[in-house]
Each structure stands twice: as structure tokens, then as C-alpha cells.
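CO-FOLDING WORKSHEET

Operator: S.A.
Ligand of interest: flavin-adenine dinucleotide
Run index: 321
Mode: holo prediction, single chain
Checklist:
[x] sequence pasted
[x] SMILES validated
[ ] output reviewed
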Amino acid sequence: MKRRATNLIEEKSSKDAFDVAIVGAGYAGLSAALLFGRYLVKAVVFDSGVTRNFATKHVHGYLGFENVTPSALIKKARQDVARYKSVTMVKENVSATRKKGKYFTVRAGGRIFQARYIVIATGVRDVKPAAKNFEKFDGNGAWHCPYCDGLETAGKRLAIIVSGKEPLSYAKEFLGWTRNITVFLHKCRLDKKEKKEAGALGIKIVNDQVTRIEGKQGRLKKQLFCKNGRRYIADVIFYRLGYRVQSRLAEQLGCQLDEGYVKVDGMQETTVPNVYAAGDLDTDRHYVVLAAAGGARAAISIYEKTLKQAIDAEMKGHKSF
Ligand SMILES: Cc1cc2nc3c(=O)[nH]c(=O)nc-3n(C[C@H](O)[C@H](O)[C@H](O)COP(=O)(O)OP(=O)(O)OC[C@H]3O[C@@H](n4cnc5c(N)ncnc54)[C@H](O)[C@@H]3O)c2cc1C
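OUTPUT RECEIVED:
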């Protein structure tokens, strides 16, 4: 059987027709793209911006890349993918996806692309504190993931901005690193039992909203100004204000959600055949290594399917089989 980059899709004539369209060139999307490149599958990858962790200083927990910056890791990943000629990168936001007969259409940058398979790897978007100057400290003095960056709080004065259910449980995750914790409750309150527990653990509680942060970038001491006029001092800020799963495109195609995340099977296929999802948008476990693994699983599954179809089609023409 002949193998070439374009042999899986029938409409070879159109330059905008692909075997696979990948939406999102973060860790999941690029991981899928890399394998498609090696499989000689004609794929297009769309990306509109930066990965979720772009603002942080270092990536932790990704074997072989401990402490690299997210921008260095993504730059290397893009370069790795760019070596493979069957993969096209398009720096555009995908605004819509539709199913049209055997194909999916993808609208991006005023053009319509076609693909037989789609991998949606658009991640999640974090809700960040609305405090003035927050962006100055985002990823450089202010973080949200204790498993990734909790060590930054070791022995320091920690301010936690938190909303949602069980606000104290997030604060308790830092007790192994620091005992100097002040929690700012954003649109939430502690119940009686939690108040008692906070008192016993020495966690200070402030029922007020942080509206402004002052301090020098890269330096520890920060001033947090609250709505009621009070001022607090902290070295490090952590926040947990929730995130939005970027599931809009998957929902447009009719994919089911499971507790807000895109529902996938063991090989990343959604509830809509030939639509795959990978990365932060299909789970509440958010790690670079898991996102990359999800993207790889999707690519492997699509390749195995398409190769089998291509072999079956070719064998039909041979009567002896
Ligand atoms: C501050 C911070 C620190 C972190 N630190 C770590 C760490 O140390 N270790 C770790 O393992 N994990 C860490 N994480 C988690 C990690 O960033 C995520 O698990 C990972 O980025 C998920 O990869 P992804 O491919 O699913 O999504 P992303 O990496 O967010 O990539 C999604 C991509 O899709 C693009 N996109 C979205 N919508 C569209 C559209 N409509 N059209 C085109 N493109 C689109 C986005 O621009 C983005 O490039 C951290 C997260 C944060 C916020």
C-alpha cells in the first residue's frame, strides 16, 4: 500500500482539506500534531494565543523539562512539529466548527477548512483576581496551583484569594510549606466549623476583596489593599477563583459534557464519532504531562482507525482477500 501525506482524505485537490484539524497548539494539541507528523498524516493546527501557564516562570513535573520556562518548552515543541511537512500551522482563532456530510468544517481567519477528524485541545481559561496591578505579579509572585508552585510559599507570608466551595480546604494545602497564611474570601464565607478550624490552624481570615496590589516585581514584600481600605502585607499570593472550560467548539458539534468537562473515552474520542478532545478541557487534573499524553492518545487512535480504513479499502480491490 502506498503511503503518502495526503492519502487518507478524498478531496486532495483543496489546499484547505486535511485528514485532521487540531484546535489549540498547547501541550495537548502539539503533542497530537507531533505524532501526526511522524505518521505522515495531513494535519492542520490552529492556535490563537498562549498556553494557560504562559505567565508562570517555570514548568514543574514534566520529566526531562523540569524548570524550563513555558515559552521555551512551547517554542521547542513548535519547532519539533514544524520539521514535519504533513503538518500545517495556522495562527488563527477557530470561531466555529460544523459537521458537513463526512467532513467537519472549521472556520478560522475568514477561511473554511475541511477535515475528517477533529482534535479539540483548547484548554481552560482561569478566572484571575480583578485587583489592580495583578497582571504584574501573575506567574511572578502570584500563582494558583499548589502542586506546581506551592514551594514558592515555603516559610513566607502567604495571601490566598479564594472563592467557591470549601475555601479553607485550598488554604490547608499550603500548611506543609508555610504557617503564615491570610485568606481573603471573595464572594464566599466560612461556616462555623471552618472558622473554628482556621483559628486552630492559625489561618487568618479576611472577609474582604483585594482591589489593588503594590510592590516591586520579583521582590517578596507586597501590599494588598482591600475594598474597606485596609492594607495587608504578603510575600506570595495564591488564588483559586475557578476557570472556564473552553468547550464551546465541542458543544457546537454536539459533544456531551460530564460535570462541565468534555466527555471522552479511553482513547480521547468524544461522544461524537471522529471528534476527539484532549488536555485540560476533559478533566479536572491539570498537568502538562497529562495534557501531552491525552494529545498523543488521540493521535494514536485516529491514526490506527484511518490506517485500518485505508488498508480495508485497498484490500477490497484484491479479489484473493
Ligand atoms: C499559573 C499556572 C502554572 C502552571 N504550572 C504547571 C506546572 O508547573 N506543571 C504542570 O504540569 N502544569 C502546570 N499548569 C497546568 C498547565 O498549564 C496545563 O495543564 C496545560 O497548559 C494544559 O494544556 P492544554 O494543551 O490542555 O491547554 P493549553 O496549554 O492552555 O493550550 C490551549 C491552547 O489552545 C488555544 N486556543 C484556545 N481556544 C482556541 C480557539 N478557539 N482557536 C484556536 N486556538 C485556541 C490557546 O491559545 C492555547 O494555546 C499550570 C497552570 C497555570 C495556570
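REVIEW:
The pocket of flavin-adenine dinucleotide is lined by residues 23-29, 46-53, 55-56, 59-62, 93-94, 121-123, 126, 139, 143-145, 148, 246, 279-280, 286-289, 291 (CB under 6 Å).
Residues 39 and 191 are 55 Å apart (CA to CA).
[x] output reviewed
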